[in-house]
Amino acid sequence: MAFKVGLLGFGTVGTGTAAILRDRDRRNPLLQDIEIGRVGVKSLDKPRAIALDPDLLTTDLESIVTDPDIDIVVELIGGLEPARSLILKAIAAGKHVVTANKAVIARYGDELYAAANKAGVYILLEASVGGGIPIIKPLKESLGANRISQITGIVNGTTNYILTQMTEEGADFDAVLTEAQQLGYAEADPTADVDGLDAADKIAILASLAFGGRIDREAIYCEGIRQVSAEDISYAEKLGFTIKLLAIAQKTENRDNTLQVRVHPTLLPNAHPLASINGVYNAVLVEGEPIGQVMFFGPGAGEGPTASAVVSDILAIAGILKSAGKNTALNPLLSCSHQDYSAIAPMEEVVTRFYARFLCGDRPGVIGHLGTCFGKHEVSLESVVQIGFQDKLAEIVVVTHDVQEKNFRQALEEVRSFSALDSISIASVLRVF
Amino acid sequence: MAFKVGLLGFGTVGTGTAAILRDRDRRNPLLQDIEIGRVGVKSLDKPRAIALDPDLLTTDLESIVTDPDIDIVVELIGGLEPARSLILKAIAAGKHVVTANKAVIARYGDELYAAANKAGVYILLEASVGGGIPIIKPLKESLGANRISQITGIVNGTTNYILTQMTEEGADFDAVLTEAQQLGYAEADPTADVDGLDAADKIAILASLAFGGRIDREAIYCEGIRQVSAEDISYAEKLGFTIKLLAIAQKTENRDNTLQVRVHPTLLPNAHPLASINGVYNAVLVEGEPIGQVMFFGPGAGEGPTASAVVSDILAIAGILKSAGKNTALNPLLSCSHQDYSAIAPMEEVVTRFYARFLCGDRPGVIGHLGTCFGKHEVSLESVVQIGFQDKLAEIVVVTHDVQEKNFRQALEEVRSFSALDSISIASVLRVF
Ligand SMILES: NC(=O)c1ccc[n+]([C@@H]2O[C@H](COP(=O)([O-])OP(=O)(O)OC[C@H]3O[C@@H](n4cnc5c(N)ncnc54)[C@H](OP(=O)(O)O)[C@@H]3O)[C@@H](O)[C@H]2O)c1
Ligand SMILES: NC(=O)c1ccc[n+]([C@@H]2O[C@H](COP(=O)([O-])OP(=O)(O)OC[C@H]3O[C@@H](n4cnc5c(N)ncnc54)[C@H](OP(=O)(O)O)[C@@H]3O)[C@@H](O)[C@H]2O)c1
């Protein structure tokens, strides 16, 4: 039995996917049953890294998703449209769908899952989070017996590369970004990566699968790494922390069914399993009961790794079709379903530790005033360190105990109003894990 | 549709499994369809951590594996017999099988897989390696499109705990072993763990799945941690290494289809992803093409984590039965099949780096002699460090470049014969990653 795959897109991931599918000499015999039926692209003239029978190529992507010969549609064009419409049309035509598109799943996951379930087809998305790292399938299947309490991920390779370089070289954000762009680790327009939007898409997907509810993408708090400075990285190091852009989804303990979902740079204790994930690597830490902690680590992007994930989804569908035939019910472990929206706690209610750096004029009583502002809003301090002098201003770093974001913000307001006297300025504020 | 599970064994893992199955309030609706039909134990009088309907309990395990009401037999008694015979009888009676038993799979995997494939049932074994860590399913399914080149694991929690404690406390093996036994991290008879036998079972299973061939368990080189000394750990640290008990399976590059499969304490560079896996945690690093490196990290044992893996296998079978019914062909991604035995390279042919520590009388020319012995057998040295003095003897540590094990052994023989002059003794020899 042979299964025909229709590829939408033949760029980085599409090419990698075709490279695996056309290499017959692999350990998995099931790969022999999979054929590339059609390939949809934007331009027919573009030179391609893999020579394809020109008859396979088309710019008419609609004709692929409705082609009766195609069993599985693999969406690798990216972006919201026409990806979303093409996926919906493929589903309506009874095709199984594989996609690497985090943007479309994070925003239209519910719509797509509902359509797929109604049509009795699978929509699989292993490559949409963590590139080659097996995370979606392990989360849905291998950890399926667990109550998940928290997912913490380094899910954006560009920002992890930048932060790692800043840490190793003591360099500033802008310099490292330029270098990353030259090396191809960052896009010309780096916004989606450095402002945390890509990470927010991914944690939305993970949270919806782990907690079984729809996630309002717009409700995710999202802070990027542009304001992380070389100084803060170095002070964090002195205090035993590494700064990482974390994507976090966790159950709030005191409020039933409320989730915290957020992306921000975070000071991680060096002993934390995610603290040693460097460069373009990604990792996702899943915590639950009774499993405890498990972590999945690997390449978060790239042609080969991402294609490995795409092909594993194609194989999963082919394996089912081959063993059970085409007219069986969906396996509840592989299909995605969502009930209601998960309530997402407002950021002010999040409880976390904070790191803040202040520049203080050398007036007597300044540290005392800082302490008073914090005390007034029930922010208790774990450590206060005077790190050094900068332009004759004393640099003071505080790390708080766990505190409600709201209280901490109020305390900072208090400090700010005091600094109208021009003796304290807030140089940076970061969260601590 | 409800599926009935027959549990063989109700000890640590059996109790944990029942705890999950009887807790109806979990996120996975499929769990609602699974019922505990029978439970087989050795003693009916033993107090049990979970109260079971006494009618469920029996000491007649054969009656469970042939019970027409049972769909899935879960073998959690451990050991070779009666586990092997019971699994074979369950398969013959058309039951799907889930097992956590690495010993029986490492030795009789081929026989059990062949019987299962013939009978058209699954035999799943996620819990047999890495406790709660999803590794078997990701290896078979998520990484199914890859050519695996190497698997490197810390797959025994007891030895990893002991080595971690020795590293952190500078303590000797015997002292830490006693402590580990008191804490329940090591068994009264620690042989299977500390001599590397348990790790060898696990790497046999991983290698057979990753490379698709049968592994002769007896051909696995196996060296435990008894001879690792506090001194070597501390010298390794000074050189930038952490000592871990690694289980390694890798394709030999120059010899087609030959595998190296071995378990031994190893000096790992501190930057290696496995170097920071501490305590009872396990981790498995998989390398392949096109994925690159992926690592799976988590709790390698324990009631809850291991039960999480067992139940994920039960769910996998229930999901298939529920969606596809009972009379479908086996899904090739989930079933295990083996062709021929993999040829395992003899240890003498393995190429690796070595660490060796020598105690030398303070005679002129001793270091020169060491160098001569190594040079004669084409062992080139990466570093030679005189670390200190012990009982008036100079302590010299060498780290070699990559060298064939055979050549290194011959060089050591040469050193040994020279040491008949009583001026050099070999204090320890370890491999370096
Ligand atoms: N690259 C990675 O490392 C990576 C990792 C994880 C996930 N992903 C995801 O994988 C997807 C694909 O990424 P990529 O890096 O492979 O993208 P890419 O290199 O930019 O390739 C996009 C492909 O889609 C085609 N295409 C785009 N818009 C089209 C349209 N409107 N009509 C027809 N064809 C269209 C392009 O055609 P032409 O070739 O004719 O221009 C190109 O072949 C994205 O969702 C991305 O987020 C990528
Ligand atoms: N414990 C872990 O963390 C862990 C982790 C990974 C894998 N595993 C594997 O899981 C399996 C079970 O381990 P465990 O720790 O749960 O063992 P355990 O606590 O010793 O429990 C063994 C159970 O099997 C029953 N049993 C043993 N031999 C029997 C026989 N001949 N007839 C009937 N019943 C028999 C015992 O009955 P009684 O209760 O009446 O004595 C007991 O309920 C083993 O293969 C082990 O390697 C364990």
From TrEMBL, chains A, B:
<dbReference type="InterPro" id="IPR045865">
    <property type="entry name" value="ACT-like_dom_sf"/>
</dbReference>
<comment type="pathway">
    <text>Amino-acid biosynthesis; L-methionine biosynthesis via de novo pathway; L-homoserine from L-aspartate: step 3/3.</text>
</comment>
<dbReference type="Pfam" id="PF01842">
    <property type="entry name" value="ACT"/>
</dbReference>
<dbReference type="GO" id="GO:0004412">
    <property type="term" value="F:homoserine dehydrogenase activity"/>
</dbReference>
<feature type="binding site">
    <location>
        <position position="102"/>
    </location>
    <ligand>
        <name>NADPH</name>
    </ligand>
</feature>
<dbReference type="GO" id="GO:0009086">
    <property type="term" value="P:methionine biosynthetic process"/>
</dbReference>
<dbReference type="InterPro" id="IPR036291">
    <property type="entry name" value="NAD(P)-bd_dom_sf"/>
</dbReference>
<keyword id="KW-0486">Methionine biosynthesis</keyword>
<dbReference type="Pfam" id="PF03447">
    <property type="entry name" value="NAD_binding_3"/>
</dbReference>
<dbReference type="InterPro" id="IPR016204">
    <property type="entry name" value="HDH"/>
</dbReference>
<feature type="binding site">
    <location>
        <begin position="8"/>
        <end position="15"/>
    </location>
    <ligand>
        <name>NADP(+)</name>
    </ligand>
</feature>
<feature type="active site" description="Proton donor">
    <location>
        <position position="202"/>
    </location>
</feature>
<dbReference type="InterPro" id="IPR019811">
    <property type="entry name" value="HDH_CS"/>
</dbReference>
<keyword id="KW-0521">NADP</keyword>
<keyword id="KW-0791">Threonine biosynthesis</keyword>
<keyword id="KW-0028">Amino-acid biosynthesis</keyword>
<dbReference type="InterPro" id="IPR005106">
    <property type="entry name" value="Asp/hSer_DH_NAD-bd"/>
</dbReference>
<dbReference type="Pfam" id="PF00742">
    <property type="entry name" value="Homoserine_dh"/>
</dbReference>
<feature type="domain" description="ACT">
    <location>
        <begin position="355"/>
        <end position="433"/>
    </location>
</feature>
<keyword id="KW-0560">Oxidoreductase</keyword>
<keyword id="KW-0915">Sodium</keyword>
<comment type="pathway">
    <text>Amino-acid biosynthesis; L-threonine biosynthesis; L-threonine from L-aspartate: step 3/5.</text>
</comment>
<feature type="binding site">
    <location>
        <position position="187"/>
    </location>
    <ligand>
        <name>L-homoserine</name>
    </ligand>
</feature>
<dbReference type="InterPro" id="IPR001342">
    <property type="entry name" value="HDH_cat"/>
</dbReference>
<protein>
    <recommendedName>
        <fullName>Homoserine dehydrogenase</fullName>
        <ecNumber>1.1.1.3</ecNumber>
    </recommendedName>
</protein>
<dbReference type="InterPro" id="IPR002912">
    <property type="entry name" value="ACT_dom"/>
</dbReference>
<comment type="similarity">
    <text>Belongs to the homoserine dehydrogenase family.</text>
</comment>
<dbReference type="GO" id="GO:0050661">
    <property type="term" value="F:NADP binding"/>
</dbReference>
<dbReference type="GO" id="GO:0009088">
    <property type="term" value="P:threonine biosynthetic process"/>
</dbReference>
